[in-house]
Amino acid sequence: MSRDLPGLPGPRLEPSTAGFWLAAGEGRLVIQRCSSCGTHRHPPTEVCYECGSLDWAWDEQPGTGTIFSYTWTDQPVLPSLAGLGPYNISVIELDSTQGVVRLLSRVVDVERPQVRIGLPVVVDFDPVDDQVALPIFRPVEEALP
After folding, report:
1. Where does the pLDDT of residue 75 fall: very low under 50, low under 70, confident under 90, or very high at 90 and above?
2. How many structural domains does the chain have?
């Protein structure tokens, strides 16, 4: 884990999201799962959008997936991100969830021409502080040209 986003504000720890951010701070990817119907969901919510249940738990995931969509930004969304230069904003579809789960993140250690829809990726974590981290993704080595 390396902090390469200096100045990026950390997430707000709400009752329905704190477990996600704190687990990321421990180097684990967890996704909310309905205790009634088993559907995974992200972003986290208090109510299952499949069955309406209020019962849920965190389910640890292996963190593998593929790029579903992406774009590149040449202008930082915050002045504090100017040091990154151009970076991608990617939608990652996780492999091992019940129901489709997609996370908005970015893929690091990849050049612009290497990023493509369907590129296999694996989660890594960018610490915000000593408790919270942001999930980021790296390409699966064998998938790069």
Report:
1. confident
2. 1
Answer positive or negative: Cα dihedral of 24, 64, 118, 97: negative
Longest dimension (CA), the chain: 45
Question: Which range of residues forms the domain containing residue 126?
Answer: 18-143
Q: How many CB atoms lie within 10 A of CB 64?
A: 16
Neighbours of 125 (CB within 10 A): 20
**Residue 84 domain-assigned (yes or no):** yes
Residue 30 lies in a domain: yes
pLDDT digits (tens, 9 = 90+) for 100-128: 999 999 999 999 999 999 999 999 999 98
The pLDDT > 90 percentage for the chain reads 74
With CA atoms as reference, report the closest residue to 44 among 9, 16, 72, 15.
Answer: 16
C-alpha pair distances (Å), 59 with each of 19, 20, 31, 33, 108: 10, 10, 5, 6, 25
Is position 60 within any domain?
yes
Residues 72, 86: contact at Cβ < 8 Å? yes
Any domain includes 108 = yes
Q: What single-letter amino acid sits at 140?
A: V
